[in-house]
Amino acid sequence: MTQKSLLEGNERLIFEALPTGVFIVDEQKRVVDINTLALDILKYVKREILGRVCHEFICPKKEGACPIFDKGEEVYNLETVIIRKDGKRIPVLKSCQKVELEGRTYIIEGFVDISERKRIEEENLKLQEQLFHSQKMEAVGTLASGVAHEFKNILTPISGYAEFLEEMVEDPEGKMYLDIIKGAAERGAEIANKMLGFSRKTPVDLRKFNFRSLMGNFVGLLKTTIPKNIRLDFHYRTRVRTIFGDPRLIEQALMNIVINACEAMADGGVLSIVVEDVDRPASCKFRQLERFVKVGISDTGHGMDEATKVKIFDPFFTTKQSGSGLGLYTTYNIIDRHGGCITVYSEKGVGTTFNIYLPVLKKKEKKRREVKEPVESDGIGRPLVFVVEDEKEIRDMIRITLRRRGFDVVDASNLTEAMKLYERIKDEIGLVILDVVLPDGMGTALLNQIRKEKGETLRVIVVSGYPKEFSEIRKIMKYGRIEYLPKPFKPQTLLNMVLLGPM
Predict the structure, then answer these.
(1) Which residues touch 112 (CB under 8 Å, ≥6 apart)?
(2) Does any domain span residue 452?
(3) Contact 503, 369 (CB under 8 A)
(4) CATH number for position 131
(5) CATH value at residue 471
(6) pTM for this predicted structure
(7) Of 71, 88, 113, which marks where a domain is finished?
(8) Most Cβ neighbours (<10 Å): which of 2, 8, 214, 400?
(9) Domain range spanning residue 484?
(10) Do residues 304 and 263 lie in contact, with contact meaning Cβ atoms separated by under 8 Å?
């Protein structure tokens, strides 16, 4: 049966004008006709198609597995693939229909190229996975932040009352025990700050610093610390000398990756670090920034499979028997908070490459304020101090500290009590010491009332286990005459702030 006898005239025009790729197959599964759009998708010319068995080159189904001829199935909008001339598999929606033409049975197969739709679906899936990952890390961060806040509330009276006892104890052995208590409290505070680091709420000391110098010092440290069976290659290929960020945290992020790289090369290998200029990566969130510096860290270790790679930035995920699973999680958070991003490529048996992208920003450095020396008090003429703090031990510690130096103190343990007390004593208050998170509300409610009635004439010291990045503290710090004292704090630190006045 010739092509001409099957479709002529208007039928041919319609066949060629169809918005889908179409070809016709006879009972021997040979292609007897095909339209131009199908040829464009498959990258064939017509003479290469006609007369050939479809499953030999177009359809990936093997002989005997044809859903129409062999299985008698109906095919309508089936998501499958067709094979292009160069061997590439093209995703399509395929529909087939048996027809009778001039006494013979044929199958008309139509297909729509859905490559673009599949690409968009894959991108959406990646975005969903990134969102899920972000939400999971945010949930863990919120938990860590809450635990750290409560931990600091416990540590504040421990260190504070130890300082009180130090003034009373004269026995050398007793002083030694107090030193142990104070040291333990300080280590506890460090742990709490690390937990805030996992929660993404630890303060970041952003400033302009010499990135070239940081990398030079970092590589110098590695030369003396990495195993001798690992060769270190370092290349600095950027003209960027300074960037804006927290050098301490950036170095920590780099070190976490290097530690993993060295552990992956227990039998030796090559650790390569390359620093170079790049354009904005598509995955970085600060889209308005164009210049980035990339730090690539590669190893020749055992590599990772795909299942491991997708989980490496998850909190508490580890492949090590003694690992905490927080190293790369912390690294991810550090880079993200700098407006950068991190990507990873790994191949089993070949090695792993982490690429860290940091934006190159131009910022003006803030001038450092001079720190005043504490002023000794004679305890005379001190203003009334209004203390709002829900933790009894901390509230008592503040009251003792201030009354020893001649201050009158009135305190409240919750927001409701504080609002009532404020109305009674507002004309006498000279200073407010305010916790942010209270059992029945936020301290911002009281501060709003104070500023509404007194403007910025009344000084406020905010005490909190949360850092300045906490949303409620950020709101408070926008007001004038607000000072911030992080927990845990020592009585002398509080007293110095009270006596010094605004800095």
Answers:
(1) 20, 21, 92, 93
(2) yes
(3) yes
(4) 1.10.287
(5) 3.40.50.2300
(6) 0.47
(7) 113
(8) 214
(9) 384-500
(10) no
pLDDT in tens, 292-339: 889 999 999 999 988 888 888 876 677 776 555 677 878 888 888 787
Residue 251 phi, psi (nearest 5) = -65, -40
Distance CA 414, CA 435 (A): 9
Q: Between the CA of residue 59 and those of 56, 62, 267, what are the distances in Å?
A: 7, 8, 48
Closest CA to 386 of 370, 363, 374, 402: 402
In degrees, rounded to 5, the angle at the alpha carbon of residue 101 between the alpha carbons of residues 100 and 104 is: 70
For residue 340, the domain's CATH number is 3.30.565.10
Count how many domains the chain has.
Answer: 4
* CA pair distance 38, 303, nearest whole angstrom: 42
- Reported in sequence order, the residue ranges of 102-241 that DSSP labels E, i.e. its strands, are 104-113, 207-210, 230-237
Greatest Cα pair distance in the chain: 116
Question: Tell me: the pLDDT tens digits for 378-436?
Answer: 444 567 999 999 999 999 999 999 998 889 999 999 999 999 999 999 999 999 999 98
Mark which of 92, 113, 134 sits at the end of a domain.
113
Neighbours of 263 (CB within 10 A): 15
Q: Are 178 and 162 in contact (CB under 8 A)?
A: yes
Task: Please name the residue that has the structure tokens 């007390």.
Answer: 421
Asked if 206 contacts 246 with a C-beta cutoff of 8 angstroms, the reply is yes
- What residues does 258 pair with on adjacent strands? none
